[in-house]
Amino acid sequence: MEKAAALLGGMIDLPTIPAVAIQVLSLLDEPEVDVDDVAELVLTDQVMAARVLKMVNSPLYRPATEITSLKGALVYLGLRHIREFILTCSIIQCSEGKDGVLGVKPFWEHSFGVGIVARMIAEKVGYHDTEKAYIGGIIHDIGEVFLSYYMRDEFQKIVDSINDKPHRLVEAEEEFLGTTHCEIGLCIARAWRFPDDYCEVIAHHHAPQEAKNAPRLTAIVNLADLFCNVRQLDYGGKAWVSFSLADEPAWGMLQGSGSRLSELDIERFCYELDDRVEEIRELVGNIFKNG
């Protein structure tokens, strides 16, 4: 963590969450929130407002008819989910123009893929908040944006070093840098005042057994990440690792009362994920189209 903090501390142009997002998140903390007030505040940031509409009208969210107003989008989402939606749009805004070794679009295709699979797994294991699993999946790799863009040369060497080798990227990061995208992401998440459970997902999504406060959530995101890394949502063809479910700590952590994970048809599950790939790519393409 000291190395991660030192690397971040040496950067003078690190992005920050838009001021409007911070104000919206504060407003949502108030006991009685009026959706009109939230909409009025979001509209002061036209980029964010446009992205909210693009996302809510995408195939992933499937409204019955096109939603054309921001207030309509917020009502459709419901106050419970506006916070997560604004948080996601804020991170997207922070990463825009940060094409690096991974590329911003492949990064977000992977991130949304992990979010979708995390929600599917959360439903299978009876996790109490599937939307939380979805957001945890979306934000789990924010540390990769930093490494890919701000440390491009070093990160390229790391990626090259494990091409066609059965090594995890996180292990190569530790070897080359003395820190990982997990620790760097945790530093960023704390600076942006993310909720504790999301911080834990970011810090431990490669080692869910080390999670203390939200182990099930972290295990869900871990499995989702692994599924996406061996299918078509692997950072544009940079699949670094294969895995066996039986050998994964997360698989054992998610068994138990109320879980239907043992009934999961893995082959069918993977085909279902493949069917969502084009929807995810369309969403990411629309998000980054025309700003």
UniProtKB/TrEMBL annotation:
Gene3D superfamilies: Hypothetical protein af1432
Organism placement in taxonomy: Bacteria, Pseudomonadati, Thermodesulfobacteriota, Desulfuromonadia, Geobacterales
SUPFAM superfamilies associated with the record: HD-domain/PDEase-like
InterPro entries in the cross-refs: HD/PDEase_dom, HDIG_dom, HDOD, RNase_Y/CdgJ
Occurrences of domain HDOD (ranges): 14-208
Protein name (database record): HDOD domain-containing protein
